[in-house]
Specification:
The chain is an alpha/beta fold. The chain has helices at about 50-55, 85, 100-105, 110-125, 130-140, 145-150, 160-170, 190-205, 220-225, 240-245, 250-260, 300-305; strands at about 5-15, 25-35, 40-45, 65-75, 75-80, 95-100, 180, 210-215, 225-230, 235-240, 310, 315.
Length: about 325
């Protein structure tokens, strides 16, 4: 068997506390793997650590954040321990990221063509003419009509869906092995969402890159992901093949997420919700972090943190219920 393209082990990230206070752990012992050409969906409520995880993989974290422990093995190299000079050729070329909001991730002062051409010039040594040709081909590949004219336009001249496709074109400009898409469909209407997700899968089949899709939308995960990892309070609480995870969830939090999705059979006025709010990372409860909101809680959950344990051949869950 070949080694995974990406192997994350025990990744722990913390932010510096304010005014000399203790550091706050926002990712705690996250471990997962990803094979070439595979799609992994990472889901959870806002604030659970999904975007921090995406930033930590390429060490592009916010000021004050630091990796305290763990490893990120990518193509055999531990990215956590590489010097910054060795990380620059990896970012944008071997690993690319599509950020949440393309309106703010695109430079309003530069033309679309200039922004797409930047990475091939920097990483692959393309001339400006070669990079411009590459940019035109990529705009066509993401199914934007009249690519030659679009290259000379600016982000404000495009719709939200078109800007999202341009962000994808920039990410693919150097043929990465791994693409991280952080909430790529949040700002899109449902019809454009479907089109964009299908485009991502078509491009993945064509270019063979692995994909990490970060989202809070379980419908998106069901449509495009091979495997799903569920995050809560900075930890992975469940992961496994998407079909099994969504059909037979092992963790109460995954069941609660699925139960809060409206269906055609939902009685008007009786939409299920998860009570209260996710915990503050600086004030996590003892034991399982989900226990104050869990309908299946029992005494052990309140005092002892459950490990992420193997359940069967392909699944993992961090819940004491699995031992009963």
């Amino acid at each position: 068997m070949t080694a995974p393209l990406l192997q994350v082990e025990g990744l722990t990230v913390a932010y510096a506390g304010k005014r000399g206070k203790a550091m706050v752990t926002v990712l705690n012992g996250v471990s997962f793997s990803l094979d070439s050409g595979e799609t992994l969906g990472i889901v959870g409520e806002s604030g659970c650590g999904k975007s921090t995880l995406a930033a930590a993989l390429t060490r592009l974290m916010a000021p004050g954040a630091s990796i305290l422990a763990g490893s990120v093995l990518f193509e055999g190299s531990d990215l956590v321990r590489l010097p910054e000079s060795a990380m620059r050729p990896i970012r944008g070329k071997r690993i690319a990221t599509i950020l949440q909001d393309p309106l703010h991730s695109l430079n309003p002062l530069l033309s679309i063509g200039t922004q797409i051409a930047e990475a091939p010039i920097a990483h692959d040594g393309f001339s400006r003419a070669q990079a411009w040709d590459r940019a035109r081909d990529l705009v066509a590949a993401v199914r934007i009509a009249n690519p030659e004219a679009r290259l000379r336009e600016y982000p404000h001249q495009m719709s939200g869906g078109m800007r999202q496709r341009i962000a994808g074109a920039i990410a693919l400009s150097c043929a990465p092995r791994l693409l991280i898409a952080d909430e790529p469909t949040t700002a899109l209407d449902p019809t454009v969402q479907v089109q964009y997700l299908q485009l991502l899968k078509d491009l993945q089949r064509e270019h063979g890159f692995a994909l990490i899709l970060i989202t809070h939308d379980l419908g998106v995960v069901a449509r495009v992901c091979d495997r799903t990892a569920v995050m809560y309070a900075g930890r992975l609480v469940e992961q496994g093949p998407t079909a099994q995870t969504l059909r037979e969830p092992l963790h109460p939090y995954t069941r609660a997420l699925l139960g809060s999705i409206p269906t055609m059979s939902t009685v008007a006025g009786r939409l299920r919700t998860i009570p209260n709010q996710p915990p503050d990372p600086a004030k996590l409860p003892s034991g399982c972090a989900f226990h104050p909101r869990c309908s299946d809680v029992f005494e052990r959950c309140r005092f002892e943190m459950p490990p992420l344990a193997r359940i069967g051949e392909q699944r993992e869950s961090a819940c004491w219920l699995n031992e009963r």
